[in-house]
Design goal:
FAD, flavoprotein, 12 helices, binds flavin-adenine dinucleotide, oxidoreductase, 53% helix, single chain, Glutaryl-CoA dehydrogenase, Acyl-CoA_Oxase/DH_mid-dom, globular, alpha+beta, 7-stranded mixed sheet, two-stranded antiparallel sheet, 11 strands
Length: 391
Amino acid sequence: LPPIEGDFYHLGDEALKDEDRALQLKVRAFLEAEIKPIVNDYWLKAEFPHHIIPKLAELNICGLTYQGYGCPGKSNLMEGILAMEMARIDTSISTFFGVQSGLAMGSIYLCGSEEQKQFWLPAMQQFKIIGAFGLTEPEVGSAAAGGLTTTCKKNGDKWIINGQKKWIGNATFADVTIIWARDLEDGEVKGFLVKKGTAGFSVEKMMDKMALRIVQNGLITLTDCEIDESDRLQNANSFKDTAKVLKMTRAGVAWQAVGCARGAYEAALGYTQTRKQFGRPIASFQLIQNHLVEMLSNLTAMQTLCFRLSQLQDQGLLTDEHASLAKVFCSLRTRDVVSKAREVMGGNGILLKYDVARFVADAEAIYSYEGTKEINTLIVGRAITGFSAFV
Ligand code: FAD
């Protein structure tokens, strides 16, 4: 039988330098050896496998694209490919990594002062400090740009923060959470480094999620939480600065969707080659091949789109609408791929041990976080028509 390979156009082989290709294969080998065997169990228990953190640190891939501060300074393409590799094995682990490396470290890298970057980034790169990113609120998700109700108020060289944050990944065990809050004085959104154990800062684990069960999402409450001015992100002056972080991480989420689809496609292809009905492998039936080819077409379209997206990013040409279009397209197509993967596996498609059921559930979270389909669509719509549909 031919090898099972979800990179049909050999994009990985073509685009990466030898050393980057070697890194990709090293990360893949780690994920297959250390993560794949344990992931269904942790998913079922809704627990995070903390013992993998030092092993992830050893790979030296956190903060992959940042220059300086102990970070590797590699290309955005390489980072996208590694996000894909992680999600190909498990979307939760990829999300844990994305929150640490992208949302939390990215906020500091893009919005922190030199002193803040030097203090936080090297330790976060090594996972000695775990980060979280608190933007969404119980009553404000899609409308975060204009609607944040968490407030901050300056009082001498301190800030007083009040409000709630919902869905915050890694929050239950993070050492530091970036909290975005609206300044009661000038009305602008500002970012704060809130350390674990700060008085007035509490986190409750969100229970009973049906997707990304390994990711520990928290409901955060801030009650007269006092933060030093030195822990305010010094270059976060309005939501425009928050949006710079989201533009970068949305591109990563598009790649994550590719990985989720690829993991499901590869599992389904392998299954159909060995599962026999009517005395033949089901992969030999025309209608099953039709499903597989549709999956591969979607997967290949997503991969090529993301390659171009990362090239634009590496050339400094990435816009919000580029990132949004990729996020919408990939999260939509991924939903289609994982559901077809489940379909060709018959009843076994809903059993956790065949992996695809987890990809089906996790694709739903990818579909909604980092901007829903509607919100990212309206960002692209605004760019191409010149009319904003947002109120
Ligand atoms: P809502 O905003 O209430 O939207 C509900 C529906 O209404 C959606 O279909 C939406 O598209 C639609 N809608 C809203 N406005 C419009 C409009 N103008 N036009 C048309 N349709 C509209 N947030 C963080 O800050 N940090 C995290 O680490 C984090 N991790 C997450 C992890 C998971 C697993 C999940 C599910 C979410 C996470 N989020 C996080 C939050 C996530 O970004 C939000 O769920 C997302 O932005 C959508 O917000 P909402 O859930 O409040 O939905």
